[in-house]
Amino acid sequence: MHQRLGHTGGDPHLVRLRERLEAIRTRSEKSTSWHSAGRYLSRLVNREGYVPVNTRISREDLEFLTGARDEVIALTDLALRLLELHQPRDAGGISSDPTHLSRRCRACMWRWPCPTFRIIDESAPR
Q1: Is 102 left (phi over 0), alpha (psi -120 to 50) or beta?
Q2: What residue ranges in the chain does DSSP mark as E strands?
Q3: Using an 8 Å Cβ cutoff, are 88 and 112 in contact?
């Protein structure tokens, strides 16, 4: 469900950020998913809390694993900061239904839930 950002307008900060995010996506897509292996390996945890693994790791997997932890933390921090900015607030005004007051995002002023919140909500793993 990857969508490209719109035209950057030549903004060097936006270009740099887009390139960094696309590089993370590219490294992730080239690496092997450990989803099914993780279920199997979790049953092999020894008394010390480790799983002895003897495997071949591709160059793409190694490149991905090298930065994955820091990249996930950075992207999670980004999402949390966006959630701090994009929160609902009372839009004011008079409502005919006091139980369903009109709310808007305090950052972008779109009707709540705003597009930014919806995108983060849809993108977060469940």
Answers
A1: beta
A2: 88-90, 103-105
A3: yes
Q: Averaged in consecutive runs of 10 residues, what is the pLDDT profile of the chain (126 residues)? A: 56 88 91 86 93 89 92 93 92 66 90 95 89
Q: Which two three-digit tokens encode residue 114? A: 């705003």
Q: Using CA atoms, how far apart are residues 119 and 126, in angstroms rounded to an integer?
A: 14
**If you search the block for the tokens 């989803």, which residue do you land on?**
35
Residue 98 is classified by DSSP as T
Q: What is the DSSP letter of 111?
A: B
Query: To which residue do tokens 């740099």 refer?
Result: 16
pLDDT at 83 (0 to 100): 94
End-to-end Cα separation, the chain, in angstroms: 16
Give this prediction's pTM.
0.70
Cα diameter, the chain: 66
